[in-house]
Amino acid sequence: MTRENKEFDRLIQEVGSVLDKVNKLNEKELQLISPLVDDIINQHLRDIFHIEALLDRLFELVLFETGEDVYNRLRDYLATFNPLRAYEIQEHDNELLGKYDHIVEEAKSLAQTIYAGQTDKAGIDYFSGHLRAVGESGCNWKDKIVGNLHDAAEDNEYSIEQIIEKLQTKCNNEISEIHLSGIQDALNLLNSQTAKTREKYISRIKKKLNSNKSEIISVKFSYKLK
Question: What is the DSSP letter of 190?
Answer without folding.
Answer: T
